[in-house]
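Hi L.,

You mentioned the student needs an example of a multi-chain input paired with its predicted structure. This one should do, with 556 residues in total across all chains.
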Amino acid sequence: MRLYIANNAPNSVLAVANLEAICREHLKDHFKLEIIDVLETPLRALSDGVLVTPSLTKLSPSPVAKIVGNLSDKSSVLHALGIKESVE
Amino acid sequence: MKSDLRAIGGNPPRPKPGPGFPARILRLVKSAPERQAIASGQVDAVIDPRDGRVFLLPDVQQALNEDQARVRSLLALSSDWFWEQDEFYRFVSHTGAASGSSGIYDESIIGRTLRDPPFDSMSEADWQAHRKLLEWRATFRDLELRCSDRAGKTRWVSISGEPTFDAQDQFKGYRGTMRDITLRKHSEARAQVSRDKVIGRAGGEQRVGQVPGGGAARGVFSRKNSAERKHQERLLGLGRKVAKEGSIANGLLAALPRKDYRRLLAGLEPVTLTYGEVLFEPGEPIRHVYFPNDSLVSLLTTVEGHHALEVGLVGREGLVGISLALGIDVSSVRALVQGTGTAMRMNAARFRKEFRKNLPLQGELYRYAHAKLAQARQTAACNRFHVVEARLARWLLMTRDRVRSDEFLLTQAFLADMLGVRRVGVTKAAGDLQQRKLISYSRGKIRILDRKGLEATSCGCYEIIENL
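Structure written out for the whole complex:
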């Protein structure tokens, strides 16, 4: 997964925290995450087709998925990542 | 903190938000989910697909500005300076409000090290000891140095620093803080003078206006320590080998992945171990573990009515206090320093915590514990079956490998303890080895003249132990 953020901007900070919580709860250690600051490497984001931050792209397992926003809607993030939400 | 201080990258430059900015942003974004995210206020920045320019939304820009202002004001309020050094320990930058006012720390410091003016209290030995610490990439705290300000007045600063590494884990230099402690130093000096007066030593070693503690870092090196150490080294004939740039002297620490080593570093403290010092006695709690760098520690077991007998030898390849890794916090042996030198020390509580978390460290220490156990078994058999001369040769070779020097200081009484024989037995065995020109031995100083010959004389246990 790649998470594109803009330094310490509020939604970016929120996205990192939300994603960390989701990974901790649902993925344990079975994930690879790269956080990319577009203020430092904007062209990298462009080459990956990312225009806004925060954005999360899932590269594998396929299909590739992209989620835009601060990832506060947990169920849509899980859906996009292809994770079935466990029954509470 | 790291991210707070990170430069908000300006490549390529961003335009300041102006009227109509949100509309321009919206025009750049074509896809529905992205537009929706912007509309719901969940987006911070948009990248212009034509040239890669990054546009921050106006309120985000403001939040980041406030963030930077907050960091700036914290720096300004602090009484510390912040500094950075390159890989050659030369200052490359400094910041902090105090730097302008006190007049110590101006541009002239750039390109200089702590050994250079305006700092003037480090002796060559102090500097070498400090360099060594830096070469281990150790964190140092409260290094107190004298320097002169722009007006030529004497001032004191306290300096702390930690190593920095780049993304490829390459050493970049050091960064840290510096604080003006001149007032404290003067009041300490005054207090010392009044104490001297009370106990009738006025006019003794401390006089009014003199500042004590010339250039010493607390617990790291003091003048006394370094003089003592030099004396010991002369006695021992040990050349102090400065670790190679970027290398870690202790084998166990060097075997750890850099990341894990760096995590341990914060809890490690460099210490000098002095010949004859006892680190712990049997039955005593282990308060610290020691990773020797160029020191040598002998593990002895005592039997009632007899001298101590050596059951293990720890040098740069090992750790003193291994039983702590096995869950036992009381020592079963006496740990006696055989060769003066340095070691990295960690307190027992911290070590237990780090050991639990650090898998590579666990692996290394379990392997090491196994080797130690096998070494003790082999030594026990060796002491029972092999002649004194062969055992003495083995012991000298093992010592040589650990201190990496052909010369060391050993009294016959000490050797007798090591080998569990009477002193006369050692005298005879050492005399034989000397006669065969394998070693020279005078006034407690042993020099190995012929390593191959000594190996041939030694019992097979030397090879077995060294191959463990």
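You could point out the following to them. The interface with chain A takes residues 3-4, 6, 8-9, 11-12, 28-29, 31, 33-34, 36-38, 40-47, 49, 52-54, 56, 60, 63-64, 67 of chain B (CB under 8 Å). The radius of gyration of chain B is 29 Å.

Best wishes,
N.
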